[in-house]
Write a structure and sequence with these properties.
The chain is of the alpha/beta class. The protein contains 11 helices and 10 strands.
Length: 304
């Protein structure tokens, strides 16, 4: 018995014990009364004890049957709870937290491709610029900008960050041509005030470009890159943006780079998960898909 549990017979036994009738149990289980009888006889033979007293239209548990019924009912309930828990986890949405700007300008426009590949996976995208507690907030994947190495988490490098000036073609028509960075004098510069302290900004770029006649300080401030880029799209000035966040607009001509000079940031984008969850199929699929997207966009040279 320890090496072989007759699970089918025990399931039939539980139905008979609960229904008080072989016929009712057969109807519930969608099998024949003869099949019910064979299961019960086989179980009684294996246990070498009688489990039911038989009457014309009903059955009644013996003392041994009562004892077995309690254990089987509890065991089947435990199995069902475990199955429900696994099924619930399988059907739960994949919770992904990502910085607001990266979500709006890079991740969300590409999500349709992931859904096309894996239509059975439901995704919940939670945009946030704050540090994430993956365990407490029940987060499956976090995409964050930083140096790493994020001890205690499963960490995958997504892509490095390049900062570049961008503007609309209309701005170039109005103020250009821009043959030298000093030609930006008098052009509105758009600022992202929530950039990390060590990230390059307009002061760094203008110095690197030799634009000694351009004041880097004037211009409107925005709480994130997304808003600064939206202002640039509306012909309001030049934004200094992470290249990943403007890659689609550069490709379709909505934005242009007036100069080729880009500055590397000391920070990279990382994909983070709890170590005990990192190999779950949907998390693994999503992580691999992110790397594919970064490779396709030319944000990385290759994916190891």
């Amino acid at each position: 018995m320890a090496n072989h549990l007759p699970l089918n017979a025990l399931r039939v036994f539980e139905a008979c014990a609960r229904c008080g009738s072989f016929l009712s149990a057969a109807e519930e289980l969608a099998i024949t009364p003869g099949a019910v009888s064979r299961h019960i006889k086989g179980l009684e033979a294996e246990l070498e004890t009688r489990l039911f007293d038989r009457f014309n239209r009903a059955v009644r548990l013996t003392a041994a049957g009562e004892q077995l019924s309690v254990g089987v009912r509890q065991g089947l309930s435990t199995i069902q709870s475990a199955v429900d828990a696994v099924r619930s986890k399988r059907d739960a949405p994949l919770v992904v937290t990502v910085l607001h700007s990266l979500a709006a300008r890079w991740l969300v426009p590409r999500l349709h491709d992931f859904q096309r590949r894996y239509p059975e996976v439901q995704i919940l995208v939670a945009a946030s610029d704050h540090a994430a507690d993956l365990a407490r907030e029940n987060i499956d994947v976090a995409i964050r900008l930083g140096r790493g190495p994020y001890p205690g988490l499963h960490v995958t490098h997504l892509f490095d960050t390049l900062m570049t000036p961008v503007c609309s073609p209309g701005l170039v028509e109005k103020y250009g041509p821009f043959n030298h960075p000093n030609d930006l004098r008098g052009v509105t510069l758009l600022h992202d005030v929530l950039m990390l302290p060590e990230e390059p900004d307009w002061t760094d770029w203008l110095a690197a470009a030799g634009a000694d006649r351009v004041d880097p300080n004037p211009g409107p401030r925005f709480s994130n890159t997304y808003l600064a880029v939206e202002a640039a799209l509306a012909d309001r000035g030049l934004a200094f943006a992470h290249k990943a966040m403007v890659i689609d607009d550069l490709a379709n001509g909505r934005l242009v780079q007036p100069f080729d000079l880009s500055l590397p940031s000391p920070f990279s984008h990382w994909v983070l998960s709890l170590p005990e969850k990192a190999d779950q199929p949907n998390i693994r699929r999503f992580r691999s898909w992110l790397l594919d997207q970064a490779l396709a966009d030319g944000l990385v040279d290759r994916v190891d």
